[in-house]
Amino acid sequence: MGLFSFGKKSTTHRNQVKILFTSDLHGSNVAFKKFLNAGKMYKTDVLIIGGDLAGKMLIPIVDLGSGKFDVQGEIVGKEGLQEVENSLANKGIYYGVMDKKEFDEVQEDKRKQDEIFKQAMVERVKEWVNIAEERLKDTGIPLYVNLGNDDPEYLFEVLKQSDVIKITEGEVADIKGYEMLTYGYVNPTPWNTPREKKEEELYRDLKSYLEKANPDKTIINFHAPPYGTNLDNAPLLDKTLKPVVKGGELVFTHVGSTSIRKLIEEFNPLLGLHGHIHESRAFDKIGKTIILNPGSEFSEGVLHAAYIVLEDGRVKAHQFIIG
Question: Is 310 helix (H, G, I), strand (E, B) or coil?
Answer without folding.
Answer: strand
